[in-house]
Design a protein that fits this description.
The chain is built from 14 helices and twelve strands. With 384 residues, it is of the alpha/beta class. Strand 5 (174-178), helix 7 (183-186) and strand 6 (196-200) form a beta-alpha-beta unit.
Length: 384
């Protein structure tokens, strides 16, 4: 994008395709170069760069695109989703403080808060997340942060972001939301008053199962502080080549997400009607208990959902292993369809503690033809 188009109001498709590319700056290259260097010297010119651990032009292009998509002032890219999550959380922590977090949140996030930060005196109260009243009852004088993930990545319950953000502000408490599931195309938590948004760029933003990355978006002053402290001091900056691959992926994000959504809507409806399925968890279904809240918060739905087949553990595992077009793995958001089994081996006690129902399977609906995905699930379920 040239200098004279910077002030034009851009659609999200335009942002993904062109924002930050600055063709004039890079000799007309339609794909900006990779600044794959650690050091920037400044003997003859003061260009504002010194060391890639702090800033790098390639990384900045990805950051500008994602900040604009999230309608935030700034973004900072990290070496992984957990690097971004832990940096955002740490920014708001202090010795002996208290954090509120949904119990079904991403497991490494819960481990970071409940186990790792315990040695610094940080206390965590785990809540269901769908009740604002429960969250308010959990607030203490030492509460500094309410950490959210909407929808939650296994059970897909939502949190009322606007109401919780207003509640937190009234107590002087910060809020962070993991927005990886919805992507910036379908949900913008900053517009609801949330302080920081985090993403695992390894999922839909990357979309090709070939990069690790994370992003934080929010107020520029806060992000500058995180860049100079949590990111720079922990050394968790994204590699320039990963940033270049992320820029590549963002160009196709709108078309990919439309297909993920279209496929997932068909798959969810199929599973809901199947006689061998006990329950389906997907915010895009009108039967979802928070469907109206989802329509208020989001403009679309991604391809990650879960369901509970009717059968014992052995039957469910055999069904999962018999799938031909689903690979088995814990990640999601790539081009490929994946299945994972977070509820297959939990007992009643761990199910209550984690919020994950017994027998629950999670699927990431990929970009294959919807009929192929549905046919594979139908055959495997009928053979149980």
């Amino acid at each position: 994008m040239s200098e004279d188009t910077r002030d034009i109001r851009m659609s999200k498709e335009d942002i993904c395709a062109h924002l930050g590319d600055e063709y004039d700056r890079y000799m007309g290259a339609i794909v900006p170069p990779i600044f794959q260097n650690s050091l920037f010297t400044r003997k003859t010119i003061n260009h504002g760069y010194s060391y890639t651990r702090v800033t790098n032009p390639t990384i900045e292009i990805a950051e500008r695109k994602i900040a604009a998509l999230e309608e935030g002032e700034a973004a900072r890219c990290f070496s992984s989703g957990m690097a971004a999550i832990s940096a955002a959380i740490t920014h708001y922590l202090k010795k002996d403080c208290h954090v509120i977090c949904p119990r079904a949140v991403y497991v490494p996030t819960k481990a970071f808060l409940s186990s790792y930060m315990e040695k610094f005196g940080v206390e965590v109260t785990l809540v269901a997340g769908d009740s604002v009243e429960e969250i308010e009852q959990a607030i203490r004088p030492s509460t500094t942060l309410i950490y959210l993930e909407s929808p939650l990545s296994n059970v897909f319950t939502l949190q009322d972001l606007g109401t919780i953000a207003a509640l937190a502000k009234s107590y002087g408490i910060a809020t962070i939301v993991d927005n990886t599931w919805a992507t910036p195309l379908f949900q913008n938590p900053l517009k609801h008053g949330i302080d920081l948004v985090v993403h695992s760029a390894s999922k839909y933003l990357g979309g090709h199962s070939d990069i690790l990355g994370g992003v934080i978006v929010g107020n520029r002053d806060v992000l500058d502080s995180i860049m100079n402290n949590e990111r720079s001091l922990f050394g968790a900056v994204m590699d320039p080549h990963q940033a270049w691959l992320l820029i590549r992926s963002l160009r196709t994000l709108p078309v990919r997400m439309k297909q993920h959504e279209a496929n997932a809507m068909q798959v969810a409806a199929f599973l809901e009607a199947h006689p061998r399925v006990a329950a389906v968890h997907y915010p895009g279904l009108p039967s979802h208990p928070q469907y109206e809240l989802g329509r208020k918060l989001m403009s679309g739905y991604s391809g990650l959902l879960s369901f509970i087949p009717k059968g014992d553990r052995q039957q469910i595992q055999s069904m999962m292993k018999s799938l031909r077009f689903f690979e088995e793995g814990p990640s999601w958001g790539g081009f490929e369809s994946l299945i994972n089994s977070p509820g297959l081996w939990v007992n009643e006690e761990t199910s209550r503690e984690s919020g994950i129902p017994i027998g629950l399977l999670r699927i990431s609906v990929g970009l294959e033809h919807a009929d192929t995905i549905i046919g594979d699930l139908d055959r495997a379920l009928n053979e149980m």
